[in-house]
Write a structure and sequence with these properties.
The chain folds into 2 domains: 193 residues, 2-Layer Sandwich (Fructose-1,6-Bisphosphatase, Chain A, domain 1); 128 residues, D-Maltodextrin-Binding Protein, domain 2 (3-Layer(aba) Sandwich), CATH 3.40.190.80. Helix content is 30%, strand content 21%. The structure holds 2,5-anhydro-1,6-di-O-phosphono-D-mannitol and magnesium ion (MG). The site of magnesium ion (MG) has 4 residues, from strand 3.
């Protein structure tokens, strides 16, 4: 007899969580469901990406004479359409677009939420079949309901996020999100087309053995980071060192692995890029919310909690140190002990 398979789906968990907010109208829950649907569509396309040489490379013309879209553009359009049709969102900011997109149809003007997202992070990895992801961050608007949203709705500290998460398109496709009630993971079961609960109350180990940083930039790093890398590489059985270096170059994949196994991810400021590479609104804030909800930390390496940084521009970049609590604290200690004038 086949074993009984009774998965708990994303929608079921969302509805259960909803009961923790008795005065809420279920709009945030509906919004998360819409994100789940967009994610499934992007998953389908990402999985077909390996077939481009057979079906026609991106940028080329297909048999009907239609140009084929790049996947990051496709993902962007998919998520924008999902947010717009939800009727709960009054505007979005996407890493792909220079400006915010305001939804001014009658329904959306009454929408209480704005969403920031990176539709396909690490998209340069698609060509080589490496995991990529979508990252999202949801805020309650601060402009009055009924009017058009504006930039002020997006310039909120990460502490104000109502929910955040990512979808990782990897060997399995997973969605990990938080509404501030812990970090929860779902795995897409392609046979039934549903995200099924797989990681309840995710807790990242307080210490780990993995460090993730692009060491190709070593000579451009601040002295504190250089010294911390050497610390990770030294032999000390008492502290489980040396640690292993693991760097995929896809934030979602690197963060996800460290979240599960314990580790630290660093994208520091460098000579030439005094704020690092990663974007506060689309990458650092959502990841920081998830890290903290799983018991980890996320800082800029200089004592400032990512979630407390006041955004000043849409595509602002900030250095990111995130992962296991003790590892981030140690890296911060090195940054304090070895201050330098590195980044001109
Ligand atoms: P992208 O948004 O243009 O895809 O860039 C972000 C990606 C992250 O996924 C990853 O952590 C980082 O860039 C890697 O950068 P680098 O190649 O400099 O190490
Ligand atoms: Mg990105």
């Amino acid at each position: 007899m086949p074993t009984k398979y009774q998965p708990i789906t994303l929608n079921e968990v969302i509805i259960q969580e909803q009961s923790a907010f008795p005065y809420a109208k279920g709009e945030l829950s509906r919004l998360l469901s819409h994100i789940g649907i967009a994610a499934k569509i992007v998953h389908r396309e990402v999985n077909k990406a390996g077939l481009v040489d057979i079906l026609g490379a991106a940028g080329s013309t297909n048999i009907q004479g239609e140009g084929q879209q790049k996947l990051d553009v496709f993902a962007n359009e998919q998520f924008i359409a999902a947010m717009k049709s939800s009727g709960i969102v009054c505007g979005i900011a996407s890493e792909e677009d220079d400006e915010i997109v305001i939804f001014d149809d009658e329904l959306s003007l009454d929408g209480k939420y704005v969403v920031c997202f990176d539709p396909l992070d690490g998209s340069s990895n698609i060509d080589v079949n490496v995991s990529v992801g979508t990252i999202f961050s949801i805020y309650r608007r601060i402009t009055p309901v009924g009017l058009k949203a504006d930039i002020s709705d997006f310039m909120q500290e990460g502490t104000k996020q109502a929910a955040a998460g990512y979808i990782i398109y990897g060997s399995s496709t997973m969605m990990v999100y938080t509404t501030g009630l812990g970090t929860t993971g779902f795995t897409l079961d392609p046979s039934i087309g549903e995200f099924c609960l797989s990681n309840k109350f995710m807790k990242t180990p307080e210490n780990g053995k993995l460090y993730s940083i692009n060491e190709g930039n070593y000579i451009k790093f601040p002295m504190g980071v250089k010294k911390y890398i050497k610390y990770c590489q030294e032999h000390d059985p008492d502290t489980n060192r040396p640690y292993s270096s693991r760097y995929i170059g896809s934030l979602v994949a690197d963060f996800h692995r460290n979240l599960l196994k314990g580790g630290i991810f660093i994208y520091p400021r460098t000579n030439g890029n005094p704020n690092g590479k990663l974007r506060l609104l689309y990458e650092c804030n959502p990841v920081a919310f998830l890290a903290e909800q799983a018991g980890g930390l996320a800082t800029d390496g200089n004592g400032t909690r990512i979630l407390e940084i006041q955004p000043t521009s849409l595509h602002q970049r900030v250095p990111l140190f995130t992962g296991s609590r003790k590892m981030v604290e140690k890296a911060e200690e090195f940054m304090r002990t070895f201050p330098d004038e590195c980044c001109e």
